[in-house]
Design a protein that fits this description.
This protein is an all-alpha fold and about 110 residues long. It is about 85% helix and about 0% strand. The protein is globular.
């Protein structure tokens, strides 16, 4: 089997199980879950950058690139926060439907605009 297909199937399986995990954490505040996700993502990425010895490339980023990365990170944080809040407050079906429709809408907008 192609590794890409295996990775894709694995990612979708993990994404499908994720609401069960968030629901198990419904006694924990959504902001605390989000904070853990942010902190552990930073630790993981810093480790990956360290293993690849890419710190010099990070230092060479322009202000414009850093600003774009900050905007993308902020949007991703809002996305995570909304999803975690929705699952913890019993809106699992609605949030899952939103995640299902989102790629379809992105493709439709790409076809229409680009």
């Amino acid at each position: 089997m192609n590794r890409g297909i295996a990775f894709g199937v694995g990612a979708y399986l993990l994404w499908g199980v994720l609401p069960i995990y968030w629901k198990a954490l419904d006694t924990v505040d959504s902001l605390e879950i989000l904070a853990h996700r942010i902190v552990w993502s930073i630790v993981l990425l810093a480790g990956m950058i360290g293993v690849r010895r890419s710190w010099p490339q990070i230092r060479l980023l322009s202000r414009r690139s850093v600003a774009r990365l900050l905007i993308a990170g902020t949007l991703l944080t809002l996305n995570w926060a909304t999803y975690i809040w929705a699952v913890n407050n019993g809106h699992i079906v609605e949030s899952s439907l939103g995640y299902f429709i989102n790629p379809l809408l992105n493709v439709a907008l790409g076809v229409l605009i680009l």
